[in-house]
Design goal:
The complex is a heterodimer of chains A (about 210) and B (about 180). Chain A is an all-alpha fold. In chain A, about 65% of the residues lie in helices and about 5% in strands. The chains are: A mainly alpha (about 210), B alpha+beta (about 180).
């Protein structure tokens, strides 16, 4: 029983990673990963929306008529995305500014609607919550990994939260002076995504034997 | 018929609950957002004023790009204006503030609200991005609106966001013409 619950969470991290295996949510994955802090903000936003939309879809699955289930899911998802937008604008304005158009676009992120349709409307609230945590973490880890590689090589920095005397930017010697600019551009994001996808495919096949 | 009514009521109820929840969250966050936006305007005005004294805001209703202006003085003498401008970028409309001397030459500028692409057009939010527009706008040095008008190292800093750069340049240029036409009045 407990093993089953752990499997629901862990599948999102590797076996069914939404970015590298299912290839979902690629627009924000490629768009916001120029800085680690943007990836972190987007990841937190997606986890929040995914958890609450999964819980509510699971809760209302027997009430929502099948003919209007997709519009109902969109209303639920859009409501939680708007909440994230308002809260970020009020309490984390710099991340809100950095994420720009990608924040409201969480509404059409395939991971959110995909999990509502494929998992939450067929499973219990607890399982839907665990699925959301696993998928959300899988997405967050994936975009942080991409952002880390792109920012380190493309800008020679790692941008985190500013705290006290620390301005939030770690400068990498040599790479800061001579960055590999292509990593910050769209072409670099696609190249990196391709290599990471290739690595995950190779690793999955090797694991399966 | 009955099925359709039940379906409609269910969807309406979900929408009503969502709207109520959003109204509640909005009532908590709206004052905080308004406070933050006001602080951003104050900070931006101070930055672009470059030491000049800022006078009261004057609203403009008969111009597409210029929404308001603030006269800037030095020792009680009118030296120029800070303009609140609206432009059209890659991701939609954006607002920026730019300060000018009376002949229309640019003192400084800052990008405010925008929907430009993170990592590309969003670079326009940085103060150093606006360095390429400083001291332009006079008869001899026009405001750059194309990447080709920049030095090689400046052009590199724009990267792939040429539409944003062109939009910012054209908006600043519009402000420059507006100020020059005012002629210190």
């Amino acid at each position: 029983m407990a093993e089953n619950k752990i499997a629901i969470v862990s599948k999102g991290l590797f076996k069914e990673n939404p970015v590298f295996i299912l290839m979902l949510g690629l627009c924000p994955t490629l768009g916001v990963t120029t800085q680690v802090i943007n990836a972190l903000g987007m990841g937190v936003g997606v986890i929040f929306v995914l958890v609450f939309s999964n819980i509510f879809v699971s809760l209302l699955k027997n009430i929502i008529p099948p003919s209007v289930r997709i519009p109902s899911y969109i209303v639920i998802i859009a409501a939680f995305v708007t909440i994230v937008e308002m809260v970020m604008h009020a309490y984390a304005p710099s991340i809100y500014q950095s994420l720009g158009i990608f924040l409201p676009l969480i509404v059409v992120n395939c991971i959110i609607l995909g999990r509502a349709e494929a998992f939450a409307n067929k499973n219990t609230i607890v399982d839907s919550f665990l699925d959301a945590i696993g998928m959300g973490l899988g997405f967050t880890v994936a975009i942080i990994l991409i952002a880390l590689i792109r920012e380190v090589f493309g800008s020679g920095t790692i941008t985190l939260f500013a705290m006290g005397g620390f301005d939030g930017v770690i400068k990498i010697p040599l790479l800061y002076t001579y960055p590999v600019r292509i990593f910050t551009l769209a072409a670099g994001a696609l190249l990196l995504m391709g290599y990471l996808k290739g690595f995950f495919e190779w690793f999955s096949k090797r694991k399966r034997g | 018929m009955k099925k359709m009514i039940i379906t409609g009521i269910t969807l309406a109820l979900i929408a009503a609950v969502a709207a109520t929840a959003l109204a509640l969250i909005n009532s908590v966050t709206a004052p905080k957002i308004a406070e933050y936006e006001a602080q951003v305007v104050i900070n931006t005005l101070t930055e672009v004023a470059s030491g000049y004294e800022i006078k009261d805001k004057i609203e403009v209703s008969d111009d597409i790009s210029v929404k308001a202006y603030y006269p800037i003085h030095k020792e009680e003498v009118l030296e120029g204006y800070i303009l609140s401008l609206v432009g059209n970028g890659y991701g939609g409309t954006f607002s920026l503030m730019a300060s000018y001397l009376l002949d229309g030459s640019v003192i400084d500028a800052r990008m405010l609200n925008n929907s430009e692409t993170p990592g590309l057009g969003k670079k326009a939010e940085k103060a150093e991005y606006m360095d390429k527009f400083k001291e332009t706008g006079s008869k001899d040095t026009p405001v750059p609106t194309k990447k080709g008008q920049l030095e090689a190292d400046e052009a590199d800093s724009i990267g792939g966001s040429t539409i944003t750069f062109s939009a910012v340049g054209k908006t600043i240029e519009t402000g420059s013409v507006y100020v020059a036409q005012k002629g210190g009045k």
